[in-house]
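Input record (one chain):
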Amino acid sequence: MKLNKSEIKLKIQSEILKTTELIDTLQELTKPIEPDCAIGRVSRMDAINNKAINENALRKAKQKLVSLKAALERLDDDDFGICVRCNNEIPFGRIVLMPQSRFCVYCASK
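The corresponding structure, as predicted from the sequence alone:
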């Protein structure tokens, strides 16, 4: 199967833009919680919990951004779209949904 690399490139660029915007938003949400804010103890605990959840989401978004940029650089390689574990083609639908993935569905689930 011949991959439509221009379509994949647009998808990767779009995902990079969305992920960068998400990172900006999450960075705002993960700023330190001021100890002198006049909020109750339960509200402060809730804010700390939400901050931890957002920090995890920020970490994952940053990892995704690195993977997307790497996929964009690999796009013209002969082995783009080939699973690095089993050497079978990665289905086009998976590439469109997860262009940063280097594994087919079967190998990714192992």
